User: What shape does this take?
Amino acid sequence: TQLLEQSPQFLSIQEGENLTVYCNSSSVFSSLQWYRQEPGEGPVLLVTVVTGGEVKKLKRLTFQFGDARKDSSLHITAAQTGDTGLYLCAGAEDNFNKFYFGSGTKLNVKP
Amino acid sequence: SAVISQKPSRDICQRGTSLTIQCQVDSQVTMMFWYRQQPGQSLTLIATANQGSEATYESGFVIDKFPISRPNLTFSTLTVSNMSPEDSSIYLCSVEEGEEGYTFGSGTRLTVV
Assistant: This one.
């Protein structure tokens, strides 16, 4: 059973467009992380959010943690081809020690 | 961040055989984690490995099928035993670094024929 559901599952857009990826759960998380993974590599951490309602910005990426700490979103502004990859959210229910990963969103940004 | 060396990077194995995957970390870490990932899909946690104690397995994974060793604070192995084609997947080890998140090895792509 997947604790975290991501949507959309696949996303193919043109360079320059904006997009939002959602991560939803019925569970409350003490913290939530977003990762990006490229083929043949392990996932790489983008951000950690720990406070309900928290918003973090990383250049063109904006991350939000829901007020109830059950959901999160990742918004990318003016997508670039280098943003192509598999985006994964991961939540920890009680502490930082064990994270469960979402179902993943495969993003393809076309030139 | 920790640097993890994972090997082999890929292997093709006959059904019924076993494969041991190794992960070496360049620093001492308390907990190491083993994940399985179908290409392009999400990660499923197999087990958590602590040094000096038996690994803790997630639902659907058992020690007889996926024995894990953790002889010291920088090394761990995962064995995929009595393999079948359903075991074909990418296997990743990782360590947690608090708010720095998880650091992953580059993965082992296993194909069982």
The interface with chain B takes residues 2, 31, 33, 35, 40-45, 48, 50, 86, 88, 90, 96-104, 106 of chain A (CB under 8 Å). Chain A has a mean pLDDT of 91. Chain A is about 0% helix and 50% strand.
